[in-house]
């Protein structure tokens, strides 16, 4: 089935807009508009697009901002809320960025990315992931976030359902809603390793199911699906011809042995159904460069490209030039990236070991990314109180308690569809993590609570 969202059938790339005649954009008399706005100045209609009005702001960003504000006020806060590596971008990539400026790569690039970068992405996807794309199947955007948004907008029609396994990355449900679709959240527990099972997927499917979003390695849980687990999900997907899969592989390189990353598009029958998203933010510590990419069957890549051509156009020319160097640093990012991953692994080991020692904290050991999602239902609920602080009905309150009393900023799991969990990002030095976990352990000492 070749179907994109119906509102996209009428979107044309900007180069094809008619200037006059049938289908031309209506030109409004500017003078009349200006006069009308004078008289209406007193009563501004503040109505927002209802889809926007119902959007929730990102709690990850809110908590990061809170930690920054408290720090600026002089408080000794440790922020473990942000989803970004604490490392600097590797030197060769920085040099390539500087070189891009000196060589004059300062102009617009083609809408979907430079051909040098798209060819390099195709070569990487072929040699590392075992999946073949041509450059015209790749759309380079300002971060993987934009790729996901454009993919959702491209394939979802109003009232389509988007299946999102929880715990999920905060933006998936909000983006689905913004695209006019309905998110369908499918929960999982630490005992299931926080992974979607084929049975749970099957039970969530309806004729309106359009897209399944998979994120492996996962933000926020660090779960990594095995090939067998993905194959079992692919079998269910295969039984539903309308269903597509958005495979968010942005943490691909950050996996800890024996876990391994597999691209969903390589599974039998899944290439034509899969929109693969990846990017440079996490593996190459390039969050600020804003660069990600979508690789998909031509039909869907083209739809995402049209959206981009009418919204942001091509991504930064400088970041794209530097990204070619990043992809040339070697398989799995090369030695400089592998060094960062070894550091993440050491931190993962440390953080999980510390959390496992805390009474009342349950854990599914993460196998990838740089997050851990402890289950803390023992410390929240009706009647639970942190002595001298106040009631702790939910994880939102627990995180406020932890930041105010423990001086550590973490993100409440309800933001990720996991209302009894909290997310800890361990993208921080071992010293910082040790200090933060000492504080968390002290704050969560059972003696500090009543009613648990
Ligand atoms: C799972 C996941 N997907 C996508 C993104 C977006 O990454 P970016 O837009 O920085 O490339 C993030 C960033 O936090 C993420 O955690």
From TrEMBL:
Q: Does the keyword Repressor apply?
A: no
Name its co-factor(s): pyridoxal 5'-phosphate
Q: Name one GO molecular function term.
A: pyridoxal phosphate binding
Alphabetized UniProt keyword annotations: Aminotransferase, Pyridoxal phosphate, Transferase
Superkingdom, natural source: Eukaryota
Q: Where is the Aminotransferase class I/classII large domain?
A: 76-439
The record, for Pfam families, names: Aminotran_1_2
Q: Which InterPro entries match?
A: Aminotransferase_I/II_large, AspAT/PAT-like, NHTrfase_class1_PyrdxlP-BS, PyrdxlP-dep_Trfase, PyrdxlP-dep_Trfase_major, PyrdxlP-dep_Trfase_small
Q: Name one GO biological process term.
A: aromatic amino acid family biosynthetic process, prephenate pathway
CDD domains, per this entry?
AAT_like (cd00609)
| Family statement | Belongs to the class-I pyridoxal-phosphate-dependent aminotransferase family.
Name the UniProt record assigns to this protein: Aminotransferase class I/classII large domain-containing protein
State the species of origin.
Chlorella vulgaris (Green alga)
